[in-house]
Amino acid sequence: MAAILSHSVRRYLATTAARNAARVEGPSAVSGGHEGGFKMWRSLSFFVAFPAIALCGVNCYITHEHLDAPEFVKYDHLRLRSKRFPWGDGQKSLFHNPHTNALPDGYEH
Length: 109
What we know:
The protein is mainly α. It has helices at 2-23, 37-65. The longest helix has 29 residues, at 37-65.
């Protein structure tokens, strides 16, 4: 019973795919026409992708230039050090940035 069912399903799928491939008109992956694909992607890369990357870079550069650290307010619940870090002076995290990360007593100057 399983063999008959398997055979009929495979035959149905094969004939359906053949019928659908015969109906395709114009260039497609099934019909073998690949005209213009390379030119389209090259044009999209040069005229869309590269300018978008450049604009994002310019935006990051401009906005990073004008960012200042926020005013330091010493809250009791922030920057708690229950145990020292095992490197350096024990107050700075591994990826410490003196311009954006404050120490418990304030920003480094």
